[in-house]
Each structure stands twice: as C-alpha cells, then as structure tokens.
Amino acid sequence: MFVFVLDKNRKPLDPTHPARARRLLVKGKASVFRRYPFTIILHDRLKENSQTQLFRLKIDPGAKTTGLAILQGSVVVWAAELSHRGFAIRDALTTRRQLRRSRRNRKTRYRAARFDNRRRQSGWLPPSLNSRVENTLTWVRRLIKVCPITAISQELVKFDLSKMQNPEISGVMYQQGSLAGYEVREYLLTKLARRCVYCGAKDTRLEVEHVVPRSLGGSNRVSNLTLACHPCNQSKSNQDIKDFLSGKPDVLKRVLAQIKKPLVDAAAVNTTRWALFERLKGQGLPVETGTGGQTKFNRTRLGLDKTHYGDAVAVGSSTPEQVIVKVNKPLMIKATGYGHRRMCNITKFGFPQVNKKGELAVRKRVKVVHGFQTGDMVRAVVRSGKNVGTHVGRVTVRATGQFDISTAKSKLQIINHKYCQPIHRQDGYSYA
User: Fold this and answer.
1) Chain center to CA of 376
2) DSSP line for 348-405
3) What is the pTM of this model?
4) Which of 103, 136, 277, 298 has the smallest set of CB atoms within 10 Å of its CB?
5) 183-240 confidence digits (pLDDT tens)
C-alpha cells in the first residue's frame, strides 16, 4: 500500500509509494511517525509549498467487519478491514446482567423495581452496536489526519426494502435499468448464507426461485422468493413446495421457517449505518451514500473479489468505470478494547477463581511491566529456545516479565521481556 506522509507541522500530504518512502527514510529526510497506519513525517517540507490531490474515503459498514478504502481518482492507494467486537461486548454485558440480577435477588429481594426512572438520550444505541459506529468513526478521524481526504462515500442501506416491496416506487424505468434485481438478489444471498435452500450446495451459481410458483398464484414479493441451485430449480419446476419436499419434512420445515424469518442482523446494521451517517456529516466533508445492490453491481462490473475492502472500493455512484488497485494486502485491524477492571478472573459459571489454597485469586493491579502493557505491538527477536525467530504481534504482559505474543498465525507463550521491542503503543486495536 501507499505510505501516508506528513509535513514537518504534521499536516497531511499526498501518500507516496513505499519505495520512495524507503529512500526518504534512508537518506534521513523523514522519520517514522506511526506504524499503523504506516506514516512518515518529513523534516523540511511544508504543506503550503506542496499541491495535494483529491482523495475519497469509501466505507462499507458491516456487522462484524467494516471495509475501508482510499481512492485517488481511479487508483486505490490504501485499504483496510476493521473487525468489530460488538458480539464480545454483547456477551460481556449479558454476563454482567446475569450476575447483578442474581446478586440483587439475594441481597435486595424486596427492593422496588427501578425500571421507570431510566431515560435514554435521543439517538441512543446499545453498546454492542454503538461500538461499531465509534470504531469506524475513530478510523475516519485518524485517516483524515494523515491523508488529505476531500470526500466520503458510505454504503448507507444494505437493501432498499421499499423498492423490493413496491418496485415502481421510483419509476418503472429505474427498475428496468442495469440495477434491476440486484437489491433483491443481494438480500437473498445474505439472508440464506449463499446456499441452496433445498440441497445446501454452496460455491455454485444460485438462481432466484419462487416458493409458490407463478403458475399457482405466487407473487414476486421478496417473502415468496428463495435461492436454489440450477439442478434443484429444474427439479422443482412449477411444483408446490410441499409436494416437492414431501419426502423431506425436515427440509420443508427449515425452508418455510427461513421464508418467514426477517433478516434481523441486516436491520441492526442498517441502524448503525444511519447513526454513522449522521456522525460522518459532522466531519465537515461531503458524504455520498449508496445501497448494497449498487455496491455489488459496481464490484461485479469492475471484476473485484468479494472482500470487505473490495466492497468499499465499489461503494456509491462516484465509483469510476475502471480502477487500479495498488494494494497487495489490506491492513487487518481488530478492535480489542482497553482491557477490563476485574479484581479477579471468573470461571465459566461466573464464580470468582480461587488458588490452590482456596483463597480468592486477586489480580495484581500493575498495568505497566518493564515498560510494556497489554495491547502493545512489539517485535520479539528470540535467539534460543523453542520460539526462535522474529515475531511481530500483540503482547500480553505478566508481572514475572514472561510475556505472551499473539501474531497473525499463532500465540507464543513465555517470551522474556528482554527480547521485545515496542513498535506501536496500545490504542485499543491489534494489527496484522
């Protein structure tokens, strides 16, 4: 990927090619400002004496992973995939709620309920959903500081539900254009996990199929549509689904349940997208929006792989006719948080852990050990033992000075702090 560049006053300049950045570092004309994302700072350059290009940041929000891409015209100069921790937050809150409810039931059994005096602010989101918005917004702000971004594109809604229920809502000509069918198909692919509902086949071409055939009075509503591979679609033909699956009652029950079940995850993601859209407008940059069907159409037209950052490149109507991807591998970012404040660890049943003597195993409140803290990115050069080699990853500290390092491929244990060199201080994320 291209390298971000700052002038000596920390103002963003145009990103540069890695080879040119390497020459500037070797000649002493620049220094490393930040490792993730990799940024250099020049010693003798001012932004007022340089002319910057126009860059657009594109965002493809997701429930688990958000794609980020920066384009300069038709050239993709930087990309990343941001993994959220919303489900981990949800599980932690569930555990805390269960423990508190049990304790209140034991200690304050007759206390009056206090549900009526809780007031939520306007625009409130559950913590598990709000974390996705905050993570994305954090990285938008970071990228604006290191790159002269002039516009933002965001996939605002995954599916245009109103157009699926009433295709003529925006005019018949629009639905007969090149986007026809993409909204419905993308909705079905996401809802049915890209599998044939009849045989479970995946990694094959899937066809949109009517559960109740048109010849038997079936409609084109999305609730009557499903996905099937070509052999299953041909075998079913215009049969009623109960006749077609008469010998497979389990499959029939599952298919009918899938048809009635709404796409809850998509609704939750759409909620966070709207919240993100409102906060992006506060960054002072023009924000372009697009739909999931439009993103898939652009990605298919450009021949991009089905990846999160590939979807980000294809977001919005500003997507050029052709793109040049100068990204061999995107930066993998994972939200890890800043740890917790437990006085002691707990078992899987929610009870405090005890040591061999039966005493409460209280955690030591030492955050920094030998200059390191959990979450730092380090480079460990081990010259002896079973972990010989150079390892780069996220460190977990211990008071004994023997650390654990989580790399992109494995987790190494008992690495002495003397072998470790910090390359990026903890900021709530891990990188690969």
Assistant:
1) 21
2) TTSPBPB-TTS-B-BPP----BTTB-TT-EEEEEE-SSTT-EEEEEEEE--TTSEEEE
3) 0.75
4) 103
5) 677 778 877 788 888 888 888 888 888 888 888 888 877 778 888 999 888 888 888 8
